[in-house]
Write a structure and sequence with these properties.
Elements (H helix, E strand, L loop, with lengths): L2 H7 L3 E3 L1 H27 L9 H4 L5 H4 L8 E4 L12 E4 L4 E4 L1 H24 L9 H5 L16 H10 L8 H4 L4 H4 L11 H4 L5 H5 L1 H8 L5 H20 L18 H38 L6
Parallel strand pairs: 1-2
Antiparallel strand pairs: 2-4, 3-4
Helix pairs in contact: 1-14, 2-13, 5-14, 12-13, 12-14, 13-14
Length: 307
C-alpha cells in the first residue's frame, strides 16, 4: 500500500526499520535529483528566470525538501526520536514500541492552518472550473509598464505585448497572480479576487491554484507523506514551465520555446497542457483534503501517543 493510498483511505500502516530507512533514503535521493540543477547553479552564483521561483516564491530549501515524513496514520516500528529528529510531531509510543504521529499535539499547534487548507481545497474543488485565461496574468503583470520585475526582454516588445492584452479578455481568478497586475491592467480583469474572497474565487483549472498544492502540502508538514509532498513539487514545476512558456518574456535562450497564446494554435496548446495539469492536480488535491480530514478526526478521538 502506498503512502498516498494509506492517507486517502484512512488505513493505518506500520513500517518496520528496514522499510522506514529505505523510504527515507528513497525520498532523499529523489529530492536530490529534483534539486540538483538548482544546487549546482546556486554553487556558481547563477540565476535562472524560471526555476529560481520554485525556491524563492515557495521558501523551501533543497535541504528541507529532503526531510521525509511517513505522514499521518503511520507507525515507525522500533524507531526513536533520535532516528528522525526532524519529525517534531512523531513521538515515542510506549504502547506501540515506535514513533507515531501525535494528531492531538499537531492540531493543537496547527489546527487553524489545517482547517483553512481543507476548506480552501474543498472550495476549489466545488467552484466552476475555467480553461479560458490563456496565461494572460503574466502579460497583465507587464501591461503598459516601462520597467519590469524581470530582466528578460519581452518577446513582442512593449507595444506588441500591450496589444495582445488589449485584444483579449483577462480572466484571472487567482489573487496571488492578480496582486501583481500593473495598475493599468487591474480594471481589465473580469474577476476581482482578494485574500478574503480566495475560497470563492479559487478554481481547479487555474495553473497557480494547482501549483500552490505544493504550498499547502508544505504547510501541512509532517501530516503529508514525503512521496506526496514531492509529487506536489513536481506538479508545481510542470505548471511553472507552462506558465513561463506562455508568458510574454523571450526565454528561448534559456531553452524554453514559447507557447504563442496570441495565436489560435498557441491557445489550443496552452489549454491542452492546462487540462493535463488540472487532472493531475485533482488527484493530489483529493489526497490533501483526505489528509486534513484524517488529522482532524484522529485528533478529536485520540489521547497523546506517549501515554
Amino acid at each position: 500500500m502506498s503512502p498516498a493510498d494509506s492517507a486517502a483511505g484512512h488505513v493505518p500502516r506500520t513500517l518496520n526499520p528496514a522499510q522506514w530507512r529505505e523510504a527515507t533514503a528513497h525520498h532523499e535521493a529523489r529530492a536530490d535529483r529534483l534539486t540538483a540543477d538548482h544546487r549546482d547553479r546556486r554553487s556558481r552564483g547563477q540565476r535562472h528566470p524560471v526555476w529560481d521561483f520554485m525556491f524563492e516564491y515557495y521558501p523551501v530549501s533543497p535541504g528541507k525538501l529532503r526531510r521525509w515524513s511517513p505522514g499521518v496514520g503511520t507507525l515507525l516500528a522500533d524507531a526513536s526520536a533520535s532516528d528522525l529528529a526532524h519529525l517534531k510531531f512523531f513521538t515515542e509510543s510506549a504502547a506501540a514500541a515506535g514513533l507515531a504521529f501525535d494528531a492531538r499535539a499537531y492540531v493543537g499547534k496547527r489546527g487553524k492552518t489545517v482547517r483553512y487548507v481543507r476548506d480552501l481545497l474543498e472550495a476549489t474543488r466545488r467552484n466552476p472550473t475555467h480553461f479560458d485565461c490563456f496565461g494572460l496574468h503574466e502579460w497583465a503583470m507587464v501591461y503598459r509598464q516601462g520597467e519590469h520585475r524581470h530582466p528578460e526582454p519581452l518577446r513582442l516588445g512593449q507595444a506588441g505585448t500591450d496589444a495582445v492584452v488589449d485584444a483579449h479578455t483577462v480572466r484571472c481568478t487567482h489573487f496571488d497572480a492578480f496582486r501583481f497586475f500593473t495598475p493599468e491592467a487591474v480594471g481589465l480583469n473580469v474577476f476581482s479576487p482578494t485574500r478574503q474572497t480566495q475560497p470563492q474565487c479559487e478554481q481547479a483549472g487555474c495553473l497557480h491554484a494547482n501549483m500552490d498544492l505544493y504550498k499547502w502540502a508544505t504547510k501541512l508538514g509532517e501530516a503529508v507523506p514525503g512521496e506526496v509532498w514531492l509529487d506536489t513539487f513536481e506538479l508545481a514545476c510542470s505548471a511553472r514551465e507552462l506558465d513561463m512558456r506562455a508568458a510574454p518574456y523571450d526565454l528561448a535562450g534559456w531553452g524554453f520555446e514559447p507557447i504563442r497564446i496570441e495565436t489560435p494554435e498557441g491557445k489550443a496548446e496552452y489549454v491542452r497542457r492546462q487540462r493535463e495539469i488540472s487532472r493531475e492536480a485533482d488527484g493530489l488535491r483529493d489526497v490533501l483534503i483526505d489528509i486534513t480530514e484524517r488529522v482532524l478526526a484522529e485528533a478529536s478521538r485520540s489521547e497523546p501517543v506517549n501515554e
